[in-house]
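Cont'd.
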Amino acid sequence: MKKTMLRKPKGFVDVYVHKAGAEKDRTHYCPGCGHGILHKLIAEAMEDLDIVDDTILISPVGCSVFAYYYFDTGNFQAAHGRAPAVATATSRANPNKVVISYQGDGDLAAIGGNNIVQAANRGENIVVFFVNNAIYGMTGGQMAPTTLEGQVTTTTPYGRNVDTDGYPMRMCEVISQLTAPTYVERVSLHDAPHIRKTRAAVRKALQNAKERKGFQFVEVLSTCPSGWKMDPVKSMEWVKEKMLPLYPLGVYRDKGDEARVITRPVPVMDPAEVWKKLGISAEADVDFPRGDVADEYKKMSIRVAGFGGQGIMVTGQALASVALEYGYNVSWLPSYGPEMRGGTANCSVNIQDGTIGAAEAVKPTMLLAMNRPSLEKFEKTIVPGGTLIYNSTLIDIEPVRKDIKIFPVPITGIADDKLGNIRVQSLVNIGAYAAITGMFKVEDVVKLLPKLFKGKKQSIIDLNAKAVKAGFDYVKENF
Amino acid sequence: MTDAKYPRSEVNLDKCKGCGLCIAACPKKVLVFSPKLNSKGYHYAEYVGSGCVGCGNCFYNCPEPDAITVYLRNYDPEKEV
Amino acid sequence: MARMLMKGNYAAVYGAAMAGCTAYYGYPITPASEVAESAAALFPKLGRTFVQAESEVAAINMVYGSAGSGQRVMTGSSGPGISLKMEGISYCAGAALPCVIVDIMRGGPGLGNIGPEQSDYNQVVKGGGHGNYRNIVLAPNSCQEMCDYTMLAFELADKYRTPVFVLTDGVIGQMMESVTIPEPVKELPDKSDYAVFGTPLNKNLVNSIYIDHDDLEEWNMVLHRKYQVIKEKEVMYEEYMMDDAEIVLVGYGSVSRVLRTVVDDARAKGIKMGLFRPITLFPFPANEIEAFPERGIKHVLTVELSTGQLVDDVNLALAGVIKSDLYFRLGGNVPSADEISDKISELYGEEK
Ligand SMILES: Cc1ncc(C[n+]2csc(CCOP(=O)(O)OP(=O)(O)O)c2C)c(N)n1
Ligand code: SF4
Ligand code: SF4
């Protein structure tokens, strides 16, 4: 519809109720500030595109920290530099809304430099309006990443020295290096024709956002009469004379019709669906009936130790997993610290009824030693009357303890020679453990193998079933 | 003043911050600083009363949301709500 | 079946999923990476959001955006990452946004190491970032509790519109136990009074600025009163063998499990020892500890994986009425039960 008047756009609220103090009918911006001009263009575009009620605006830290006073949208105020991160999550939560990240140059290019680059690189479905006024306005005129060479600010009192302060950063050029952004343009507010071009860019970005076309970036060369200590009209001339040569205007990226429409999944919240999707069945857990377990094996604290690659962690996890199915409380704790390097590994497993205290088997009731260093290190820690199972294939020394029960089992040998696969040592261990303690039945363990080796081939599961049996039989036959 | 005639620019004098951007942007030079001060102590901008061509430059150059209203050529007060 | 063997780090994410958490924003750090990894595995199956952020700073600000959008949201990290999140957590507290942060503590200061420590206690329990705010802090000591308390954390976060920490260390995070997955929540709270949706009827503002001094003071008083209510209503702790105890051990998280073994060993020898385990670190069970002398408790030994961060709160509560002691290990070392028992004999030996 053709306009018949140019008046305060409906993208603005009528009365600035959030604004502190009595002046709730005018902005907090200094006379002649470019922020106000850009605000008006955004508010007008939102009205004309009919998106005022579908827009969420993120106000940054900087002079536009109070942008939320004015826009009749949903509003966030974000931490310094983090508006793109806040916008990311806001947009993910509200995938059909227009989300605007409004930022100054300190906010966007300095403290938030990585946040803007990463949001751009993810192609977040947001619009960024980037006000480049070559200075920190809010804090009283310090250097910004965009400050010009030689420009005097309160922190470059002798002018920006590129040798110590670096060069003015060109953010459109940076952002347009990335693959994801849809639309990147630099515009300027320095005179009426350029304000019209800015108006067009603002509308284009918001139209794209309305169509959920990904990441839109509009850099606006703007003025800060107060920070520059210049009158507003002179400030406009300064943009033209000093900023334009350094910050070339124009379109840096426009994917046009090739821009992809961003869609996000709808979260599953229905309780039954949630369990279904995660493979959790609502049926009650049924424990395997327990066999006869001697008293000494009713409360197990087990240390499993050996070389990395001997299935130490898997052995421990399998012990815990199987015991769990008999209704025991179980814990499994991997070893920490320097011993993890140098190729040795150990873990602690507790199996008992009642609450488990310390998870580490500092004084184990059982040691499962898969190599010599483990035997040497942990044999002395076994509680008196405890149990030692050791891998007699690889351990060529005799245990020294006389006050414990000792089971030499050629675990590696059984796996390698008998079953032809060294990787099934873990389940040989489980078989031996079952035979010694009476805690597990071989057929129960076999039943659990598909669950323990989820996603593995049937042949692997079959081989491991043989391993359990072999470990079990060896102990039954030899002790 | 020629109230009935459009186009016409109108400054809301108490909301004007006297920055002068509208005055600089007006191609017909029909906006001027008032010698008077508004309630905030600014020499506000003023339409001289005739000569506006309805280009809208003053509106878009003005940083204040509602310091300036421009009634365009096709404006009809009867039709406005 | 709802019973599974899983790591504490995974259990926290299952708890979150059951609590209706719709978004996870995180950055990898050992020993908390598995929290992010399990969210990356589970959340897409549920059409929920997982984003590996560019930093912990970004992650917590994403949490701010998500919480402000009315979602149940979570992040997880450890020591250095928690330090980086502090500004963002302060913003969440200041804007009264509910969120859940899982901290799987590691050794510090600096890069420290990836072993278990409890040295984030002060920065997490006392607020941590700038301004007058507190986080509710839950300290699980098992994988089941990682799941259950993460779920509870979302309830508390929404109840009080405040950040809630699930604070534990690498032992609980990386150990596996049997976890029974609770049923998913059926209904989520209505947040339309403050969350931003960007609809015609909802023009809310998420914000922590109060330019006017009186306004900010007033807002701080609102927060302050909220923390007082939390102190009155939400204290959680566990007592073990405390009825006739003369020696009481105080510890949380993984340490409390070792202390339980110490108590069992002592009881086997006829020593009247008990365990007091704070479950909420803020609110701290100060009244319960203050009452120790009345209960005939003679000695209090705090054991922690930090150089006396927890014991400060214990001593504040005891107010000097009985002298309390401290034993700690650092750098990833966890004291054994025997080591602590020896310390106890050394300290209180003659009275045993
Ligand atoms: C973490 C943090 N560091 C510093 C500040 C102080 N601060 C407020 S605004 C600002 C600079 C803003 O400059 P810019 O982004 O260029 O916006 P302008 O004010 O020029 O619009 C700074 C450094 C802060 N609020 N937070
Ligand atoms: S200090 Fe500069 S950027 Fe800030 S309001 Fe004033 S003119 Fe605008
Ligand atoms: S541009 Fe606006 S604020 Fe500036 S003088 Fe003109 S009417 Fe006043």
